[in-house]
Amino acid sequence: MSTLTISDKERFLINQEGQDFSHEAKTFIKIRELALKNLKDLDFPTKKLENWKYTNLRGISKIEFRPQSAINIIAEKVKAHKIPNLDAYTLVFVNGFFSPEFSDTAEEKDGKFVVTNLNTAKRKFIKFVEPYLGFQTRAKDQFFVNLNSAFSQDGAFVYVKAQQKLDKPVHIINLVDGDLVAAYPRNLIVAEKLSEAQVVVSYETIDTASALSNVINEVFVAEGAHVQMDKIQNENKNTTHISADYAVQHKDSTFTINTIPANGKLIRNNLSILLDGTGCTANLNGAICLNGDIHVDNQTYVNHAQPNCDSNELYKAVVNDQAASIFNGKIYVNKIAQQTNAFQSNANILMSNDAKANSKPQLEIYADDVKCSHGCTIGQFDDEALFYLRARGIKESTAKKVLLEAFIGEVLDKIKIEAVRDYASALIAKNFNSKN
Amino acid sequence: MSMSDEDKIIEEATTGDYKYGFVTDIESDLAKVGLTEDTVRFISAKKDEPEWLLDWRLKAFRMWEKMEEPDWAHVSYPKPNYQDIIYYAAPKPKKEYESLDQVDPEILKTFEKLGVPINEQKALSGVAVDVVMDSVSVATTFKDKLGELGIIFCSFSEAVKEHPELVREYVGSVVPQADNFFSALNSAVFSDGSFCYIPKGVRCPMELSTYFRINEANTGQFERTLIIADEGAYVSYLEGCTAPQRDENQLHAAVVEIVAKKNAEVKYSTVQNWYPGDKKGRGGIYNFVTKRGICAGDNSKISWTQVETGSAVTWKYPSCILKGDNSVGEFFSVAVTNNMQQADTGTKMIHLGKNTKSTIVSKGISAGKSQNSYRGLVKIAKGADGARNFSQCDSLLIGAKCGAHTFPYIECQNKSAKVEHEATTSKIGEDQLFYCNQRGIKTDKAIGLIVNGFCKNVMDNLPMEFAIEARKLLEISLEGSVG
After folding, report:
1. Beta carbon pairs, A and B, within 8 Å
2. How far apart are CA B468 and CA A266, in angstroms?
3. CA-CA-CA-CA torsion for B106, B110, B116, B120, nearest 10 degrees?
C-alpha cells in the first residue's frame, strides 16, 4: 500500500487550476503551458535564496488561496477606491477579472491608442499583443512570475501608436473582494516610437478581503517614447502582494516608475529594467512610510546593456512600529555600456526600536568609462531640526510632520499627476500620523 | 593623450610580471597527500600537542566533512581537490635558535631578496620578526625585550606548550571551528602561526611583525594567529607576505582571531602579495582567509588595514564584533587586481554594544581582465543604541576588460543608530590626466599620482615601514602605469 503525499506547492498549484483558458489563441496558451512546465521545477522562494534573504513568506504555500471571480460587486465600494479628482481612462479589475461596468475603455480612439482589458486585446488586437506579451517574463527561475504567467485571468492593455499621446492618464484599479482570493492581474503597456503615456496602477481591497495578489506589469518603451507609471499599493492587512514589473527601453526613451507601497501584510516588488538602446533614461523612485507590522521588500535591477544611458534611483523610507523596509538594488553595467551614468540612493528613517531597515545597494560594473554611485543611509530625524521648529512654538507632532514632508516630499514630487500625488501623500501622512 | 598611448600604458600596466617569484631550497618534512582523520592525528602528533587540542582539531575535521565549499562569492575558479593537498610541511627541525647565525642561510637569503634583512631589522628598525617559513616558525627575535614587559609573542605551537591555558581559553572563541568551510578546514589542520598576548595595561613598544611565505610545492598553508590584548593594552601587529612563483594553485586558508578587552586597542595591518598567477591566470594562490576580532570590553578598539595586491583568488572579510559599549571598529583596505585576478573582499561590522562606532574605507582598483568586488555587512543589533557607521567604497577601473562590483549589506534594527554608506565607481578622468600632462607630468607618472591619491587615506593608516612596502607592491602590481 502506498500513500500519495504531495508537497505544499503541488497542493497550491492544484488549487489554482480549474480556470478555462482554451478559448485563447494558441500563442497565448503556449505561454501558459511553458510557465506550468517551469513551475514543476520551482518552489516557493525561501530565505535561503539570496534575493529572499530578508523576506520570509511565512508558510504562504500552506494557505488555500484560490482564484475567485467576484459576484455582486457593490458600485459604491468600487467608487470609494477611485483616486479623487483624477481624470483618467479607468479600468477596474476585481480579483484579477475585468469589470466592464465600472470601466471606460478606448479602443483605437481616433486611431491613436488602445486602452482595454487584455482578454479583449488578445482577440481584437492580437497583432499588438502577440509580439510583447510574455516577452520579458521568460525567466525560468522565478516562481511567482511563472505562477502569474500560468494562471493570470486578465489585466489591462494600453497601446499607444507611434508619435501619439494618450490624451489623459490610464488608471488601472485592481480590487480584491472575498476570502482567500488568488488574484493574478497582468498588465501590458506598449508605447510605440515617440509616443507618450501615463499610467497609474493602484491595488486596493474591499472590506476585510484576504488575498494573495501576484501581479505582473510588462512595459515596452520604444525609441524616443516616454512612459510614466505610478504604482500605489494600498491593500489591507490580510493581503500579501507580490509584484514583478518589467520594462524594456529602446533608444532615447524615458521610463519613470514611482512606487508607493502603503498598506498590506507583506509587499514585495521586483522591478527589472533593461536599457536596450543608447541614450535611455530610467527613473525609479519609491516613497515608503510604514506602520504596524507590514513588511515591504523593494528589489530593483537596472541592466545597462547599451552605452550612454542614465538611471536614477531614489528610495526613501520612514519606518514606524514593527514594520520592516528592505531595499535591494542592483545596477548592472554591461561591458559595452560605456558612458553610463547610474545613481542609486536609499535613505531610511527608523521611528521605533522594533522597526527594521535592511539595505543592499549593489553595483556590478564591467565597463570602465562609467560614473556610478550609490548611497545608503539609516538614521533618524535630525534632533536639531526638530528643536529648531519646537523652539519656534511648533508642537512636536506638527514638527515631525513637517520633517516627514521634507524627507518623503522629494520622492513624491516625482509624481507628475497632481491628483495621484495628493492621494499618495495622504496615504503616507495617514500612516505616519497613526502613531506619531 | 592619444588613445594608443593610453592603450599602451594599460597594456604595460596589465602585463607586468611578478617580481618576487623564486623558490628556496630547503628540505621539508611532509605529511601524506590527502586529508583524513589520520592526517589530523599526524599533524597533532608531529607537533606534540596535548589531548584537548587533538580533540578540538578532530571536532573541526568532522564538522568540515559535512560542510560544502561556499560559492556565493563573486569569483570563479576550479575547486581545489582537498584530497590532493599535503597538509603539513615543516623545515627540518634544527633545535632552538639563540642567534641569527644558526638560522638556515637559505632562509636568510630569501629574506634578503624580499628586502627584509633580519639582522638590520633587528638592529635598526626595532621590529621583532617572527619568521614563518612554510609552516613552522624558525626564528624569533626581540623575544627577551618583549618578555620583560610580560608580552608573549611566539609561534602558535610554542604557545600551546608554554601557555596552554591562554590558548585553550581563546582559540576558536572569535572564529568558531564551524564558522565556515575554510575556518573548519584550518581548525582541523592548522600547522602553525603566531600567538600574541599583551598583559593588562601594557603598551607594546614596537610593531610586531610576521613574514609569511609559502614555500614547499603543493603544500597548503594553514596559519592560525591569535592576538589577545588584555585590559588597557595596545599592540600594532603587522603581517606581510610574498610567495614564490608556481604553476599549480596553492591553497591558503588562514584564520586570525583578535580579542580586545576593556580599553584595549589592536591595530592589525596586512600587506598581501601572494603569487597572483601569470598573465593568463595560470597558477597563483587561493587566499581564503577568515579574520575576525572581537571588541569584548568597553572602550576597546580594533583596526584592520590591508593592502591586497596578490593572489589569484581572494576571499577575505576581516570583521569586527563590537560587543563592548563605546567600542570602535575600523577597516581600511586597498585591493588591487590585475591580469586574471579575482578578489571578493570586504568586512563585517556587527554592532552589539551601545555607542559603538565603525568606519569602513575600501578602495578597489581593477586592471587587466580582473574582477574586484567589495562585499560588506553592517549590522546594528537591537540593543546597539547610538551606534554609528560610515562606509565608503570607491572603485577605480583601468582598462575596459575588468570589472568592479559592490555588494554591501546594511541591516539596522535600532532607531537611534546612524548608518551611512556610499560608493562610487569611475575611471581615471581624462581631465585629471590632461591637467597633469599640461604641467609636464608624463602620463604614466600621472596615473601613479592619481592612483596614489586615490588610496591615500588608506595608506596613511599603515605603520611607516609598512607603508613603504605597500607603495612598492602597488607599483609592482600596476607596473608601467605607476611611478
Report:
1. 118
2. 54
3. 20
HEC string of B116-173 equals CCHHHHHHHHCCEEEEEECCEEEEECCHHHHHHCCCEEEEHHHHHHHCHHHHHHHCCC
pTM of the model: 0.85
Specify the residue for cell string 492593455: A157
With respect to residue B288, please indicate whether it lies within any of the assigned structural domains.
yes
| B402 touches A: beta carbon within 8 Å | yes
Task: Please check whether residue B483 lies inside any domain of the structure.
Answer: no
Cβ–Cβ gap B397/A368 under 8 Å: yes
β-pairing verdict for A324-333 and A295-304: parallel
Radius of gyration, alpha carbons of chain B: 22
Nearest to B410 among A338, A368, A378 (CB): A378
B chain contacts of residue A365, beta-carbon cutoff 8 Å? 395, 397, 403-405, 425
B403 lies in some domain: yes
Q: Residue B438 belongs to what domain range?
A: 3-477
For A322, which residue in chain B has the nearest alpha carbon? Answer: B413
| Amino acid at position B440, single letter | G
Residues of B in contact with A357 (CB under 8 A): 410-412
Contact list, A360 vs chain B (CB under 8 Å): 407-410
Measured CA to CA in angstroms, residue A310 lies from A251, A301, A338, B396, B473 at distances of 12, 14, 11, 20, 37
Residues 6+ apart with CB under 8 A from A59: none
Q: Which residues of A touch B383 (CB under 8 A)?
A: none
Alpha-carbon span B277 to B248, nearest angstrom: 9
The domain ranges of chain A are 8-383
Mutate to test the interface with B, among A55, A368, A384 (most CBs of B within 10 A): A368
What does each of the 436 residues of chain A score in pLDDT, given as a tens digit? Answer: 445 678 889 999 999 988 889 899 999 999 999 999 999 999 999 988 888 999 998 788 889 999 998 878 888 989 999 999 999 999 999 999 999 999 999 887 778 999 999 999 999 999 999 999 999 998 889 999 999 999 999 999 999 999 999 999 999 999 999 999 999 999 999 999 999 999 999 999 998 889 999 999 999 999 999 999 999 999 999 999 999 999 999 999 999 999 999 999 999 999 999 999 999 999 999 999 999 999 999 999 999 999 999 999 999 999 999 999 999 999 999 999 999 999 999 999 999 889 999 999 999 999 888 888 888 999 988 889 999 999 999 998 899 888 988 999 999 999 999 999 999 999 999 998 765 5
Verify whether the Cβ–Cβ distance A374 to B423 is below 8 Å: yes
C-alpha distance from B409 to closest chain A C-alpha (Å): 5
Contact A376 B424 (CB under 8 A): no
Q: Which of A371, A373, A379 minimises the CB distance to B422? A: A373
* Contacting residues of B for A353, CB less than 8 Å apart: 382, 413-415
CB contact under 8 A, B403 and A372: no
CA distance A142 to chain B (A): 19
Distance from the A308 Cα atom to the nearest Cα atom in chain B, whole angstroms = 15
Residue B271 and residue B282 in contact, taking contact as beta carbons nearer than 8 Å: no
| CA neighbor of A299 nearest in space, from A94, A53, A122 | A53
Residue B386 grid cell: 547610538
**Inter-residue contact B213 to B26 (CB < 8 Å):** no
Taking the C-alpha atoms of residue A111 and residue B382, their distance in angstroms, rounded to an integer, is 59
B482 within a domain of the structure (yes/no): no
Total tally of structural domains belonging to chain B: 1
Residues in chain B closer than 8 A to A364 (CB atoms): 74, 403, 405
CB distance B425–A359 less than 8 Å? Answer: no
The complex's ipTM works out to 0.85
B254 in Cβ contact with B193 (< 8 Å)? yes
**Three cell numbers at B299?**
572602550
Contact at CB, B399 and A351, closer than 8 angstroms: no
